[in-house]
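FW: tagging you since you asked about this chain on Friday. Here's the raw sequence from the shared folder, copied in full. Didn't touch anything.
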Amino acid sequence: MAEIELGEVQTAFAEIVWKNEPVSSGELVKICRTELDWKKSTTYTVLRKLCEKGIFKNVDGIVSSVMSREQFYSAKSEKFVEDTFNGSLPQFIAAFMSGKKITEKEADEIQKLIDDFKGGKK
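HL: got it, structure written out here
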């Protein structure tokens, strides 16, 4: 599994790649210059690091994801629950919900997720 910890800069870069993929490395340099005020070397350095982490790949100058945005954030969430709550989803939910109110619609959506997982739909 890819290393799922990214700093703020790497996360901003990853979001750009996910939004634009597949994207040529030259176009990615232009986007990063515009959106992040980066030089070409910075773009290639961050790209290389995220490729080494197994999140992206750069094949023949075309950058695309190995791990989708959804897979990345899912893995990051799983690691957080594992590290912080010994892998206990009920403990995480209890801590997250502590002192919060949810709407009936939110409760219904959560119940549907639970029912779908129990029924093997996910």
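FW: The chain has six helices and three strands.
HL: agreed, and Helices lie at 8-20, 25-36, 40-52, 69-85, 89-97, 104-118.
FW: great, closing this out.
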